[in-house]
Structures
1.
Amino acid sequence: MNASLSIVNPRVYTPINELYMHAEHLHAQSLSDLLGNDSACAQQRALSLVFTFGSLHVDFSKQRLTTETIGLLTAWAESCGLAAKRQALFAGAEVNPSEKRAALHVAARWPANEVPPRGMESAAAFCQYQRERMSEMVNRVHRGEWYGATGQAITDIVHIGVGGSDLGPKLISEALADRPSSIKVDVHYVSTMDGAQLLPLMENLNPATTLLVLASKSFTTADTQFNVRTALAWLSHALEVDEATVCRYQLIGVSSKPEKMTDFGIPEAQQLVFKEWIGGRFSLWSPIGISVAMQLGVECFDELLEGAHAMDKHFLETPFASNLPTLMALVGAWNSQFLNIPTHAVLPYDGRLKSLAAYLQQLEMESNGKSVGLDGRSVSHATCPILWGDVGPNGQHAFYQLLHQGSHTVSADFVAVAQRPVVACEKVTRALEAQEQLTLAHCLAQSQLFALGDDAIPQALRGLMAQGYRGNQPNSVVLLKTLDAWSMGALLALYEHKVFVQSVLWNLNPFDQPGVELGKQLATSLYQTLADEPVEHQNVEDPSTTQLLHKVNEWRKQRNDKGSS
Ligand code: F6P
């Protein structure tokens, strides 16, 4: 690997070469060497790699690094101009040059009573205005004063969106669903383009009391447009009104394209707008989050924004050596670029976080899954790792075998929740507390086993227990005091800023996604081919795709023939 190619500006000192040498040196040491003894030095190291911020506690002490590594990494961040770039992000500078825009998702969570940084003022005011409009809509539904086309009050929301217009709100809805609430509105998420998630909803929901939320920044995404068309057909048929009437009574649009919403037939009063400068995968905080507020209340949504804002301020104001998002980014870059660890697992030890890995996959891989720098040159080292994961305790019965005894090195984030308030009878409360304890014990045991391998086995049991745990798998533990809206806001903002810092380290634009476009274009012409329509731009033919098209046509024709006979 040519380390010198990573130097962004040759006139600025950068410790890249020292970091590569340091990595060589650390390769010879295992996590057991660094962590697995009681020496004062090991104790000190562990303590200096642990950070608490509000209700978040992050432990980096099972990472394959030392305080010297952190020193070199923070010097690297400084040499990349992180402080100035962080300032530019919050000031609304054009940090997304390919699309010529700012990235001001932080404005969407800036509180009304706090002066925003210079450059963010009008963005924060616009977001505040839309937030108020969103709150009015939500409160109207909650008061039972939003009536459908046949005059009945709304009981169910079907949120239709995909990617950033789906993953964030869905994750929060699932994470906080057990929050005690008097709200009687149910929220359902639909994202897959095949209509499979819509089918059971159309069978089970009352069409007269269902409100659709069409969430799409671009308002052109086929997945969402097709789902909405199907849902409108259902409501129109079931309520015996035309689709334009359904749009007037039972459709809210959330998009950055108000003119497209108007063309579609959504009345202006039912349009919520966010601007181009909020990227899809950063849009949870904008009115894209309306379904969270519908399910959990405006107050809860505000708490989510408060948690994210607290993390913004921490990121903006805290020196790098104790700045959580910066440290998380540096640790991730260290694993990927210097220790050559190609995949990163996200392992939440809480069923309510079952969609966390999917959310972070889009956030991290769509942002930094790139290998051409802002200067147009190819990057010569690894950038964003492949991120994957599942609920940890379930993963223990599936893929952990490979992690412990297979041949791959993997880094991981364990995410756990220390306590869950339970409202139940005493007996059930005790039973649930025991389950909470069991889950936490498993999380900590796995984190230890990942790091130490066989060396985690107590002396007295050595020789008795099956051995051969490789260990040396670096991992962090992110512990949340409780799973509440504030903590979720802070947690997701932590990862957002991690992504930004890594983009600075790797000199990437984290705010565009050119790589997802071509697939959509190729699908358009194949869609026409399948419909036997004239194709504007014929795809390049290849024998594999041709035979698949034949088979698909043959089997679809059989269904169609059956239908018509
Ligand atoms: O997958 C590409 C993408 O553009 C994402 O970045 C975005 O979150 C998703 O599609 C949905 O886009 P939209 O909100 O414009 O429908």
2.
Amino acid sequence: MSNINTSNLHVEKAKTSKLADVNFEDLAFGKTFTDHMFMCDFVNGEWQQPQIKPYQPMQMEPSARVFHYGQAVFEGMKAYKDDHDDVFLFRPEENFKRINKSCARLAMPEFPENYFFEGLTTLLNLDRDWIKPGVGNSLYLRPFAIATDPAIAAAPGESYRFMIICAPAKAYYKGTVKVLIAEEFSRSANGGVGFAKAAGNYAAQFYPTSLAQQKGYQQVIWTDADTHTYLEEAGTMNVFFRINDTLITAPISDRILDGVTRKSLIQLAKDNGIACEVRQIKVSEIVEASKNGSLKEIFGAGTAAVISPIEGFEYQNTYRELPEINDHSYSSVLKQKMLEIQHNLAEDLHNWRHEVEVAK
Ligand code: COI
């Protein structure tokens, strides 16, 4: 990590706010952005002065390397507000560590910690009114980094841009989700970039997901690239299975994202006396459990979606429905516990909540 002690953040405030034009009751995920954005360029081997500017389009050379080789990484995090107008982040240091891991894997320079947190908290103070109180409301934060060199040689670049943009958010998926278990396509492989939040990991999912959508499924559950027999991730989320009263989720690896929601749920399950096994899980095991009635739940877990219960899955041309969820389902109980911690409505045993102090 670069050894820089003071960021000297430059702030240019928006002259007018777009806030009054936003209908917070009708928000499509990730389409409305707040008044400000954070950016910082890496040039000549150094991160330059970070800046906050009014949210706006930006100019870039058509040859910028990100357009040609997808040298881009991102994070997903959220800010929450309680009824006293206090703003909180949830385990933000995990996102900071992960984006730098992703940067390292994509041969991009790591971003300094003080720039990241000063940028984030200043941005959240400027756009504080965009964060609505109440469980179910949040401000989705999208830190990302791209290669900006005007050069199309297929090699790591020398100039980069790190940015943070913010979008008010409600639910990511409306209602439950039906999934198709992958038998042909793969999300990632050993030695690859599956563990990183590399932009290309998501682009590569669009085509197989669109095929699944044509069959009436919203997402694909990815299986291991070698054999397609082990269950790994669900679309843009980690995935949990409940067989009888035990939750099971795959261990993180080269291929599986170390999800912040995933690891928080494993801990919350423990805290609430729910058995949770972290181990490989075969497709055949859940098919068998579905046949004999012991498969009670499947749910995806991620920052954007929080917990997304799965209604049923297709595998080898057979659709299998899951039992209907209720208030006692693990997905409902754990989601509630998680949201209460995030919104400052419950005790935070593990110090996951970070208050964003009001700027003086
Ligand atoms: C997140 O949960 O933050 C994600 O990364 C999902 C995103 C692709 C919408």
3.
Amino acid sequence: MSKISGQSVRVAAALALAWLAGPGCQPPVADTIKIGEYASLTGKEATFGISSHQGTLLAIEEINAAGGVLGKKLELITEDTQSKAGEPATVVNKLIARDRVVAVLGEVASSRSLEAAPICQQNRIPMVSPSSTNPKVTEVGDYIFRVCFIDPFQGTVMADFASQTLKARRVAVFTDVKSDYSKGLARFFKERFVANGGQIVAELDYNGGDKDFKAQLTAIKGANPDGVFIPGYYTDVALICVQAKQLGLNVPLFGGDGWESEKLVEIGKDAVEGHYFSTHYHPDVASPKSREFVERFRRRWGRTPDALAACGYDSALVLADAIRRAGSTEGAKIRDALAATRDFQGVTGVISINENRDAKKSAVILQIRDGRFRYLQTVTP
Ligand code: PHE
């Protein structure tokens, strides 16, 4: 994945010549700061990992082009979790034991972050999740951080949206019981929606990866809701929307950041039209910093960045800033510097790490219209 530039070839050649030149000269040593990344580059949530990785790698390349950190280049070593349980532990153990990374970036999905976080914690290797929102992730320990908001907030954002904007009174909730993210977000949504005076008229479950949701959707339809909250990931959500439409369940469907993928529209087509989800970032919300990022990202990858890319980008920037302030690549020192992150200007907003090692940031609500994700509103905490 790494490109060898003309410059680094020349430097390597010069070093080799110096080494051959005589006794006393040392062979060239790899002189980089190694950062691990684990992401779902393939499998059911492949677009999460690919997009997050593109943002992360762009940040690393830009930092290196500007001279690196502590006089060294950052080297990003990326491992694929294949969107599968079991892989995060394997690949993060490898990153730490074999590659000797000084810190780890990842994962997107909360269940996968929860699997690898204890390994980082035990090895005293700081981990920064770009976009895992379940509260339990950073509760694993004092080496575990995130640069995004958490689901007690995201749940209230969508509950208030349902009550106030959609004027929904009777809502059904459809939860992926295999996902910590889905279970947590469902609970936080329900608590707030009921506190708003709303009623949960049906609660149904599925297992991520299921293909047939018709039995549950028929039960949901029978409860006569005026909206359905679906805190799932895009591959499942797209099929749920298609089958809901086939069954004539014609009410607003809405969810959280897990909906965000171009695949949602590719699979869901007109069945996802008009529905809503919350997320971390939208390229149309223009801060100057975000606008420049969108341009650089387009130039590098030939596509417009989404929330996953923007969060990935910010995770690498925040980590690099912490290593710089730590003045060291020692785990405990990077951890202390990460914990001291205040008012960091990211592309997703201003990032301050709080006492729970989370960031407090705004959410955006998007609507799917004409096959695109349109910005509707920003909700500040
Ligand atoms: N927040 C989701 C989780 O914790 C992951 C996600 C983030 C998905 C951003 C899409 C966009 O599992």
4.
Amino acid sequence: MIDRNLALALVQAAMAAPELPALGHGARMVATYAQLARRAGSLAAALRQRLRLVPGDRVAIAARNTPEFIEILYGIWHAGLAAVPVNAKLHAAELGYILDHCGARAAFVGRDIAAALGAHAPAGLERAIVIGGDEYAALMTADPAPIIARARDDLAWLFYTSGTTGRPKGAQLTHGVLDVMSRAYLAEVDPVAPGDGLLHGAPMSHGSGLYIMAHVANRGVNIVPESGGFDAPEIFALLRGWPRSSLFAAPTMVNRLIECAADFPLDHLRTIVWGGAPMYVEDARRALDRFGARLAQIYGQGESPMTITRLTRAEIADREHPRWIDRLASAGRAFGAVDVMVADADDRALPADAAGEILCRGGAVMPGYWRDPQASAATLRGGWLHTGDIGALDAEGYLTLKDRSKDVIISGGSNIYPREVEEVLLRHQAVREVSVIGRPDRQWGEVVVAYVVGEAPASELDALCLDAIARFKRPKEYLFVDALPKNNYGKVLKTQLRARDASRAQTPQSMPPARGPT
Ligand code: AMP
């Protein structure tokens, strides 16, 4: 078996360039490659010998962005285990569901999350280790263990995406998938040289974390802001001390960066990669005005991480090109590692410019969902990943995303699945029907709005949500109506509802200001 363990890259970096900085926390360098590799090796030894975990076991990580995330991730891989990074903003009940579903035997958690998890911890979870706590420090004292060999098809990262059924599904990202993804990024989006920085402003459990491997492979520096989250002035302040740095940012984050950019020098900024949600063309133009040829775009999803299409720096900056605006409005062209097709309901390729579902296949696509053969078969039918996104390919291969067929709401860079919120609201006795939609919002991308048939007080609906789901998923406004628009089969027509909501928005007196995600 050829060893494909992703953790080999860290071991090799430590041998080739032991003194090179590997990890930063705020302005400080906290580990060289030799130090990071040693800590990952120690943690791997402790996981195997003290916690008695065996290759293939799942280990969860639930914390705000923290530098330890990287040594934990590589320690897990070094020991032949699989990582399950979980969004720190989830409600404890949601976290408990994921821990149970993936069968995690151990979890590394932030202090606040450890306290909240309590009764929601599943029976199979043997250990919840507080990151930075005494037990954590003790694990780090083990003598480093040799790396455990892994094959391409072995599970490396279980990436939970909330499904339309309201229950999260675990996309199985193997060592092979993450290897293809990282190589594709380095070859087609951003070559990384030793010492180049990556600033983790977006969540490391999700978008930003996937960039770690490419930067370790090419010996860049992963830098975690002290705030553990996204704060535009903090990002610019970090750039002072970390030259040649890049970051991944959701479009709403790019907008916030544009607002502050004038106050800071940009010489140290290498690339802003945007993705995860659609960007309005006007915003892309403003970003280009501010940042120049430092922008790239990626379109991917958990099931084909970071790797469906990409719009390069040169394409974004080529204002003289006759089709520049069309290209700017698109998500670019397919990565070399995947085939992309736009298909009709029977999976037949559609002609240029016709809209249909976006399908994708290739080395970056997951082999299936964890313990969900039905959803895996449906999503991967015919050997193609069915993305659930609607788009069109033009004659030159540029893909424009039209809509998300799954009606996902993306607010402040986080995905919110309407059905999950609807199910909670329907628990109220006075709610007869409900439909949740996203309303475009300049600051947050979208905000959650609930259309309710029934007499329930908004405060009681809010309380129900606070009790069951993450705060950021809570509707920012409840609108009480006599009936919801429906088709002949009784299915609620969300498109009509969104249109109705948009026309209300043009009557300002009827719209209270929207609260942002909290
Ligand atoms: P996730 O699996 O949570 O990463 O969410 C993936 C979804 O985000 C995709 O299926 C798209 O709907 C959306 N998305 C990702 N990248 C882009 C992009 N560059 N432009 C528009 N939407 C995007």
